[in-house]
Design goal:
mainly alpha, 5 helices, 84 residues
């Protein structure tokens, strides 16, 4: 992954996290890591299992968290699912 791709990834993950309110800086940091993992999963860079490992959680917990970051576990966008 190039530095430009990594920068884009972090910016997109930060945008996803900015829309969520957190109680502590530690909670925000943990959610930023999960958002980065979700973005990597959404971009098909990592599998769900590897993204979950990056986020420090089980695959099932990671998949449950995806909606929080506007990522579908089914491969469709939120807009596509909403249109059904």
């Amino acid at each position: 992954m190039s530095s430009k791709e990594l920068e884009r990834l972090v910016l997109q993950a930060q945008e996803r996290v900015n829309s969520i309110a957190f109680d502590t800086p530690d909670e925000e940091q943990a959610n930023l890591i999960t958002a980065i993992a979700a973005q990597l999963y959404d971009d098909s860079v990592l599998s769900a299992a590897k993204a979950a490992a990056l986020a420090g959680m089980s695959k099932a917990d990671f998949i449950r968290q995806l909606g929080k970051f506007q990522v579908s576990s089914f491969g469709e966008t939120v807009e596509e699912i909403s249109a059904l």
